[in-house]
Amino acid sequence: MTVTTDLVVRPIGFVRSVYHRKYEAPRQPGVDERQDVARIELIDTIDAEQCVRDLMSFSHIWIISWFDRVTTWKPMVLPPRSEKKRGVFATRSPHRPNPIGLSVARLVDIHGRTIQIDNTDLLDGTPVLDVKPYVPYADMVTGASNGWLADIEEKVVFHVNTMAIRHRHFVTDELIAHIERTLSLDPNPHPYRRVSERLDGRRELAVRQYRFVFEVNDTQVNVIDAYLADGSLTA
């Protein structure tokens, strides 16, 4: 069957969050321990106050969004916790034929056209297509399987030591927090996390224009050097 008709959707609002770049955001909602409060700002062309009436009676909501910074899609993708590529429909990758996102978030408060939520995985400025209540008796499926994720070993927490780079003047508390958050989950090379293998056998994490060199020993991650991508500030 050939589909020739385009579907037109328009955003009902936009996300405002602390995440401005794709690599900063957690791979799933609820995995970032910072509990940052984000918000959805509804557009003024809908009757927002009537649309959100009774929504505060629910504890959580579904957010249907549009991954507007995704420009291509792939039939096979490499998910964050997988060592091999998987079919895109067997993952939650944003690189899809239609880049639609589905996130659940705790509802914090509603003020006029603003819906406050916490611990979202969405980037600042992400268009929101719809908001629906999370209804446990309908949305929670008893006995559901984890698919290929069931074959992955139990999550290991890595301990990250950043003492060797804290004296660098460009290493801020924000950078330290991002390094520790990223590498404690998984320090293995992965393009989405911007972790790569170096020729000297060490590994490197890229964060904006900064590069952080580290070594892994069992569950211990030691960050031993930091420099700019142009090679400066290595001393």
Structural write-up:
By secondary structure, the protein is mostly beta strands. The protein folds into two domains: 13-139, YaeB-like (Elongation Factor Tu (Ef-tu), domain 3, Beta Barrel); 159-228, YaeB-like fold (2-Layer Sandwich). Helix content is 9%, strand content 31%. It has three helices and 13 strands. It has helices spanning 48-51, 136-139, 173-185; strands spanning 13-16, 37-42, 60-66, 76-77, 86-87, 100-111, 114-118, 127-133, 159-161, 195-197, 203-207, 210-217, 220-228. The protein has a six-stranded antiparallel β-barrel with strand order 1-2-7-6-3-8. Strands 9-13-12-11-10 form a five-stranded mixed beta sheet, covered by helices on one side. Strand 11 and strand 12 form a beta hairpin. It is globular. It starts with 12 loop residues before the first strand and ends in a 7-residue tail after the last strand. The model has no long low-confidence stretch (mean pLDDT 87).
What labels describe this entry?
2 domains, 5-stranded mixed β-sheet, globular, single chain, YaeB-like fold, 6-stranded antiparallel β-barrel, Elongation Factor Tu (Ef-tu), domain 3, mainly beta, 3 helices, 235 residues
